[in-house]
Amino acid sequence: MAGGRGSENSFQSLNDGCHGTRAFDYTFREARFARHPFRIRIRSGSMVVPPITFSPVTRVLSCIQPTGDVHLGNYLGALRVWVDGQHENDVFHGIVDLHALTVVDTPGVLGETTINLAAMLFAVGLDPEVATVFVQSHVPEHPQLGWVMECTVSFGELSRMTQFKDKTASRENQFISAGLFTYPALMVADILLYDTDAVPVGDDQRQHVEITRDVAIRFNHRFGDTFVIPEAVMPKAGARVMDLQDPTSKMSKSADSDAGCVMMLDEPAAIMKKFKRAVTDSESEVRYDVAAKPGVSSLLDILAAATGTTPQAAAEHYTQYGALKTDTGEAVVALLEPIQARYRELIDDKAELTRLLQIGSERARAVASVTLQRAYDAIGLVPA
Ligand code: TYM
Questions:
Q1: 74 and 121 fall within a common domain
Q2: Residue nearest to atom 20 of ligand 1 (CA)
Q3: Are residues 158 and 271 in the same domain?
Q4: CB-based contacts of 287: which residues, under 8 Å, 6+ apart?
C-alpha cells in the first residue's frame, strides 16, 4: 500500500525528504472518499492523477496530551503546523486524555485541562469549521483499535521506545503504569483510525510515527490492505525546541524548573526574562552549530521559527549574544500576544468549548468507526 502525499505548506516529509509526489493506491482511496463524500475537496497541484472524479486531499491527524500548560515547543513544533495546513487538507486533531492517564491520577484534573487545551487549540487558530478537534475518550474506537494494535506490536519494539526509557529513567522505585509502556500502541490506533496520510509532530514523536508505519505494514501483510501508511511531517525550524536553561534537553512541561520552558500564557515580561537568562556558552561568536554551540543554536532555531527564516540566515544578523537573546524574546512575545488575547476571550465560554468538542468528537467517530469495522472485518471477527 502506498503512503500519503507530502503537503505543500510548511510540512517537511520525513520519508521522502521533500514535498514529494507519491504514488497512490487509487482503489483504496476511492473507497475511502466514497465513504466520506462530504470531505472531498478539489485541490490543484503537480501530482499526476488518472482521470477519475475526485482529487485526493491529504488527511492529517495529530494529537496533544492535556497534561499541563502548552509551551512554546508544542506550538512551534506542532500546533502552528496544524493551523497552517487546515484549509488545504482534511484535518483531525485529538486531545488525548486517555494517553494522559499514563501520568495523571488526580480526580477532576483531566476534564479541566482538556477544556483549557481546547481553548488554546482554537486560540492558536484552529478553525472549528474546517478542523475536527475531538476528545480521545469521546471516541471509544481509539482504545478498541488500541488493543488490536497492542496485539500487533511486539514487546521488543515497545522496549526500544526512547520516550518510555526517558520517562522512566528517573523513576526507579516509583509507580510506572503498564500504560506508559504500551502507550505507542494506542498512538498507532489514534493515527490509523483516520486513514492518515500526514502526522505533523515535533521531533520527539518521530519514533512513534515510525512504529506506526511498521505496525500498519505488518497488519496489512497479515490481514490484507486495511490501513493507510502515514508519514511524519515536521517544520523546518522548531521541530525540537530546547530548554533555555539546558539546551541539550528538549523544552518540556515536565522539566524540573520552568525557567527554561516558555509557556504560551507567560506574561511578556516573564518571556523576556527567560530569554535574557538563556544559557549560551563562554565564546562570543553567533553561529548555528548544534553540537558545539547548543544554547546559541537553540535561540537561532526559535528566532527562525518565529520569524519564518532559517537558523543559518538568522545567525548572519548577530555578533552579540545579548542582541540575539533580546530579539528572540521580542519575536516570541509578538507571536504569542495575539494568541493570549484570543485565549482569554475563549476560556470565558466553557459551554461553547464543550459544544465544539462534542461536534468534533461526533465527526471523528463517524470516520473512526468505519476504520475500526474495516479492521475487524479484515481479521475476520464475527459481525456484531
Ligand atoms: P505531546 O502532548 O507531548 O506534545 C504535543 C506536540 O508537541 C510536540 N512537542 C515539541 N515540538 C518541538 N519541540 C519541543 N520541545 C516539543 N515538545 C513537544 C510533540 O512532538 C507533539 O507533536 N504522544 C504525543 C501525543 C499523541 C499523538 C498521537 C501525536 C498521541 N497520539 C497521534 C500525533 C499522533 C505526545 O505526547 O505529544
A1: yes
A2: 202
A3: no
A4: 293, 296, 315
Asked if residue 62 has its Cβ within 6 Å of ligand 1, the reply is yes
Enumerate residue ranges in the chain where pLDDT < 70: 1-56
Q: What is the pLDDT of residue 30?
A: 40
Domain count within the chain: 2
Q: Is 63 helix (H, G, I), strand (E, B) or coil?
A: strand
Which residues are tagged catalytic? 167, 250, 253
Residue 232 and residue 329 in one domain: no
pLDDT of residue 3: 40
Q: Report how far ligand 1's centroid is from the alpha carbon of 244 (Å).
A: 19
Does residue 142 have its Cβ closer than 6 Å to ligand 1? Answer: no
In testing the pocket of ligand 1, which one of 64, 228, 301 has its CB within 8 Å of the most ligand atoms?
64
- Please report, for the domain that includes residue 285, its CATH number: 1.10.240.10
Answer whether 233's CB lies under 8 Å from 11's CB.
Answer: yes
CB under 8 Å to 251, separation ≥6 — which residues? 71, 72, 73, 241, 242, 243, 244, 260, 261, 262
pLDDT at 289: 97
**Which residues span the domain enclosing 272?**
258-346
Q: What is the pTM of this model?
A: 0.88
**The pLDDT of residue 38:** 34
Based on the fold, state whether residues 200 and 151 are members of the same structural domain.
Answer: yes
Residue whose CA lies nearest to ligand 1 atom number 33: 62
The protein residue whose alpha carbon is closest to atom 27 in ligand 1 is 63
Same domain, 66 and 100: yes
Kindly state if the Cβ of 32 falls inside 6 Å of ligand 1.
no
